[in-house]
Amino acid sequence: MTMLKQLQFTAAAVALSTTAVAAQEVEVLHWWTSGGEAAALNVLREDLSGQGVEWMDMPVAGGGGSDAMTVLRARVTSGNPPTAVQMLGFSIQDWAAEGVLANLDELAAEQNWGEVVPEALQRFSTYDGSWVAAPVNVHSTNWVWANTALMEELGIEQPTTWEEFVAAMQTAQDAGYTALAHGGQAWQDATIFDSMVMGVGGPDFYQASMVDLDPEALGSETMVEAFERMATLRGFVDDNFSGRDWNLATAMVVNGEALFQIMGDWAKGEFVNAGQTAGDEFQCFRVPGTEGTVTFNSDQFAMFAVEDADAQAAQLAMASAVMSPEFQIAFNLVKGSVPARTDIPSDQFDACGQMGMAQLAEAAANGALFGSMAHGHANNPSVQNAMYDVITAHFNGEYDAATAAEELVTAVEIAQ
Ligand code: GAL
């Protein structure tokens, strides 16, 4: 902790700074480049611009954050880190361990972050007892997004078991539609894998395999079955899935070209951005087999320690804006996620948002809330990337399910 630099400015300086004339600037590295994501980010940009803080945009397209983290590493290596960076879970912890993140404790104490940020997020926002990141949201990843008109046309009821889910996709495929909209990118493959592991093995198995990295669980028959389900899903994806961006896959459901997409609730941001309403043109439900559990991730902004006083004040203005209740509502309505504070009423959120908030609280109370492996909240980036490689190789037919489970054991062992 001694390596973390203490920011000298407090919220008082933030207030003072708002009168300064355009001297302050944040350079923000992020991967929010889809329509819904950009609209959500704009809420933050406008908030800061209203405070006289200039926004220097550093977007890295690709979704899921893998490419953004590569760019970040290059920027830090060349001695020129951005001032604020979108980060997920264990990445925050890795950067904090390198001693390069700013300490936000004073602001956090003034604004009582410790009281309002759920424990599951604080585990990532704090390092060695100090605040190093401000959480913007909680996303959950075990959702199915469905086109209502297509379900009605095909006579499909909301599936509640894996068998019903497969039967629904078969119906869509037989009728000439794409059953499952998917983009063949490692993080997207991993996103659906999270739900297959949870769906087949349940919470204890998810914990043992994805979090505890128990080799027996990783190589078990249960894991083989999770891979078999991945192969089943692969059979419902269209021929052009390879490399497709996640939001283009969402657009296929929005347009009625595809029946379902398994994706985190950032997908809702795309439906909303297209003018659609939850429960009306589109439906959301938990991936069959994962009901009662929630796999989550939380986007957080970490600040890189800088010497310049104006830059520090801008960083604090941004962290302060991110944590304000008004912002958390405005942003998350657009983003598809739910607030990273426990004291926000759910009444302004749509049907999926309200369901998400209730299920998150319920899962947290029941010990059924787990960090998403695909989104960096179950294990560290090197293990995560090792898992990505095996999952994607299997999804593209390189291994059968039994070999994939064996490869997973080996890859995780090497990566640790
Ligand atoms: C996730 C991130 C979301 C969303 C998604 C697709 O990792 O938490 O906010 O942006 O990637 O880009």
TrEMBL record:
This is Probable sugar-binding periplasmic protein. Keywords: Signal, Transport. Its main location: periplasm. The keyword Ion transport does not apply. InterPro entries: Bact_solute-bd_prot1, SBP. It comes from the Bacteria. Residues 1-22 form the signal peptide. Belongs to the bacterial solute-binding protein 1 family. It is found in: Periplasm. It comes from [Roseibacterium] beibuensis. Part of a binding-protein-dependent transport system for a sugar.
